[in-house]
Every structure is written in C-alpha cells, then in structure tokens.
Amino acid sequence: MPAKNYMIAQLDQIPPVPCPCGQARRAFAGPDNQTATVHLTDISAEARVHYHKKLTEIYVILEGDGYMELDGERVPVKPMTAVFIRPGCRHRAVGNIRILNIPVPAFDPADEWFDGEEGAAGAAPAHAAAGAAVAR
Q1: What's the whole-model pTM score?
Q2: CB-side exposure of 65: number of CA atoms within 13 Å?
Q3: Does 17 score more than 60 pLDDT?
C-alpha cells in the first residue's frame, strides 16, 4: 500500500522530551521527513540560550507572557506573537510560556549549539532517542 500524502499528529498525546527550552512534544520527526517538524513546547525557567547552524525556527506563542532573548535583545511576547528565528541567532524564551515551534528543515538534534561548548547539544541521548514521534 503506498504511503499517504499527508501526516497527522495529536500533539497532546506525544510524550515530551527535554530540550534546551524545557519540554517538547515533537511531531513529524523521522528519517522519512526532512521538510519541517512541529513541536508543542512548554518553556521552563532553566531555558538555555542556544542556536542552530542550519535550522530556521518559527515560534508561535500560544499561552503565557514573557519575552524572547534574540541575539541579546529582549523582546516582549504574548499569545499569538510569532517569532522568525534565522540560523545563527542566539535565542531562548523566558517566562511561563507554551509555544508552537516549527523548525525548517525538519528538526535535527545534532543542530543545537551552545556558545563555549564542544559539539552539538543534540548529542545527548535524551534528544536523539526520544524526539522521533511521527503520526500518520
């Protein structure tokens, strides 16, 4: 039977995995999809400044108020704020916030970087093993 020409994910049913921002529920992550992924992410107080060398991310604030740190600049955010984050932009969200994150191309755990550290953050087993939920 040929593969369907679409994918569907129930984000609230995908198990969360740790990420630099908090806890992410990652949909459409898998070897057969390199186009884009969608993450429902709950931001934690310990969110770390990080960047990506290849990924562009689009954050859509769903709930809560706070701010984004974008290359050292603090930008206030509230529900329905959208933020376009280009490769190389050091960023993190701060506050009690829930976001929808759309990485393009598809999320790659090897493309999470922190200043002053060797290698990508994604080398940690929690990122690589737990982030591959795909619904069809």
Answers
A1: 0.84
A2: 1
A3: yes
Half-sphere exposure of 67 (CA within 13 A, CB side): 8
Q: Which two tokens stand for residue 50?
A: 């990080």
What pLDDT is attached to residue 69?
97
Min mean pLDDT across 91-95, 101-105, 131-135 is at 131-135
Residues in the chain: 136
Q: Look up residue 65 and give its amino acid.
A: D
How far is residue 104's CA from residue 131's CA, in Å, rounded to a whole number? 16
Q: Would you list the domain boundaries of the chain?
A: 16-111
- For CA atoms 53, 68, 115, 112, the dihedral sign is negative
Looking at CATH, the fold of the domain delimited by 16-111 is given as Jelly Rolls (2.60.120)
